[in-house]
Specification:
Length: 82
Protein backbone atom coordinates (compact mmCIF):
# COMPACT_ATOMS: atom_id res chain seq x y z
CA UNK A 1 0.00 0.00 0.00
CA UNK A 2 1.29 3.43 -0.92
CA UNK A 3 1.85 6.03 1.82
CA UNK A 4 -0.18 8.61 -0.10
CA UNK A 5 -3.20 6.27 0.00
CA UNK A 6 -2.79 5.89 3.75
CA UNK A 7 -2.48 9.66 4.18
CA UNK A 8 -5.54 10.35 2.01
CA UNK A 9 -7.57 7.77 3.95
CA UNK A 10 -6.48 9.40 7.21
CA UNK A 11 -7.43 12.85 5.87
CA UNK A 12 -10.86 11.59 4.76
CA UNK A 13 -11.41 9.96 8.14
CA UNK A 14 -10.71 13.04 10.26
CA UNK A 15 -12.12 15.59 7.80
CA UNK A 16 -15.49 15.74 9.53
CA UNK A 17 -13.98 16.28 12.97
CA UNK A 18 -13.32 19.75 14.36
CA UNK A 19 -9.70 20.96 14.02
CA UNK A 20 -9.09 20.87 17.78
CA UNK A 21 -10.12 17.23 18.04
CA UNK A 22 -8.38 16.20 14.83
CA UNK A 23 -5.13 17.68 16.17
CA UNK A 24 -5.63 15.75 19.39
CA UNK A 25 -6.28 12.54 17.45
CA UNK A 26 -3.12 13.11 15.38
CA UNK A 27 -1.12 13.67 18.56
CA UNK A 28 -2.49 10.47 20.08
CA UNK A 29 -1.68 8.47 16.94
CA UNK A 30 1.85 9.91 16.87
CA UNK A 31 2.41 9.11 20.56
CA UNK A 32 1.08 5.56 20.06
CA UNK A 33 3.44 5.08 17.13
CA UNK A 34 6.42 6.29 19.18
CA UNK A 35 5.35 4.16 22.14
CA UNK A 36 5.00 1.02 19.98
CA UNK A 37 8.37 1.64 18.33
CA UNK A 38 10.03 2.19 21.72
CA UNK A 39 8.59 -1.04 23.13
CA UNK A 40 9.63 -2.97 20.03
CA UNK A 41 13.22 -1.73 20.23
CA UNK A 42 13.36 -2.12 24.01
CA UNK A 43 12.06 -5.68 23.87
CA UNK A 44 14.19 -6.73 20.91
CA UNK A 45 17.31 -4.61 21.38
CA UNK A 46 19.70 -7.56 21.24
CA UNK A 47 18.08 -8.85 18.05
CA UNK A 48 18.19 -5.42 16.40
CA UNK A 49 21.90 -5.07 17.21
CA UNK A 50 22.65 -8.61 15.99
CA UNK A 51 20.79 -8.05 12.73
CA UNK A 52 22.68 -4.81 12.13
CA UNK A 53 26.01 -6.52 12.87
CA UNK A 54 25.56 -9.74 10.93
CA UNK A 55 23.43 -8.70 7.96
CA UNK A 56 25.15 -5.97 5.93
CA UNK A 57 21.99 -5.21 3.94
CA UNK A 58 20.06 -4.46 7.13
CA UNK A 59 21.48 -0.93 7.51
CA UNK A 60 20.02 0.42 4.23
CA UNK A 61 16.73 -1.31 5.00
CA UNK A 62 16.70 0.23 8.47
CA UNK A 63 17.42 3.65 6.96
CA UNK A 64 14.46 3.19 4.59
CA UNK A 65 12.18 2.21 7.46
CA UNK A 66 13.42 5.21 9.42
CA UNK A 67 12.67 7.50 6.48
CA UNK A 68 9.13 6.11 6.20
CA UNK A 69 8.59 6.63 9.94
CA UNK A 70 9.96 10.17 9.59
CA UNK A 71 7.49 10.93 6.78
CA UNK A 72 4.59 9.54 8.82
CA UNK A 73 5.70 11.50 11.89
CA UNK A 74 5.96 14.76 9.93
CA UNK A 75 2.55 14.12 8.39
CA UNK A 76 1.01 13.68 11.82
CA UNK A 77 2.84 16.72 13.22
CA UNK A 78 1.37 18.87 10.46
CA UNK A 79 -2.10 17.70 11.48
CA UNK A 80 -1.49 18.49 15.15
CA UNK A 81 -1.25 22.23 14.53
CA UNK A 82 -4.71 23.75 15.10
Amino acid sequence: MDLSKIFSYYDKTIMGISPGYSGLISLIVLLLLVWALWHFIKGNFIWVVLILLFIPAAWPALKSIGRILEIIGLFLLVHIKP
